[in-house]
Automatic annotation (TrEMBL):
Any one GO MF annotation of this record: protein tyrosine phosphatase activity
Keyword vocabulary terms for this entry: Hydrolase, Protein phosphatase
Protein name (database record): Low molecular weight protein-tyrosine-phosphatase ptpB
Domain of life: Bacteria
SUPFAM superfamilies referenced in this protein's UniProt entry, alphabetically: Phosphotyrosine protein phosphatases I
Gene: ptpB
EC number(s) on file: 3.1.3.48
Upper taxonomic lineage: Bacteria, Bacillati, Bacillota, Tissierellia, Tissierellales
Length: 137
């Protein structure tokens, strides 16, 4: 299964989701993209929480969503309803909203302290597990 996580800049939420998922669900494929990827690295706060979980995101480079990413994905997972709204008309039948399955939106931690990043990461992990239980039956 190919799962594509999408956030705004591809420096915090979606790469944390990607790196966590790759470790937790090695039988599936994960990518992350941003609506406005800059080509920069993952944010320091995101790197720190991944590092504390034994995951290395230092090689991550922020990427902007492309049509080939949408074609690759079996499921497209936006971090918020607002991002989902911006994707209207692009692979709508593939969109999986955490909030549609008893989960929640993932607020942007960018600019927050370590505690905010940890809360965001924990929320991501909870929502990812709910999603995978739904998708894998």
């Amino acid at each position: 299964m190919n799962i594509l996580y999408i956030c705004a800049g591809n420096t915090c939420r979606s790469p944390m989701a990607q790196y966590y998922s790759q470790g937790a669900f090695p039988g599936d494929n994960f990518r992350s993209r941003g609506l406005y990827g800059s080509g920069g690295p993952m944010s320091p706060g995101a790197l720190e929480v991944l590092d504390q979980d034994g995951l290395d995101g230092r090689g991550h480079v922020s990427q902007t969503l492309q049509e080939e990413d949408l074609a690759w994905a079996d499921w497209i997972v936006p971090m918020t309803r607002d991002i989902q709204d911006q994707l209207r008309g692009l692979g709508e039948n593939k969109v999986f909203g955490f909030w549609d399955q008893g989960g929640s939106e993932i607020p942007d931690p960018y600019g927050g302290d370590g505690t905010i990043y940890q809360i965001t990461y924990d929320l991501l992990k909870k929502n990812i597990h709910l999603m995978m239980e739904t998708l894998e039956g």
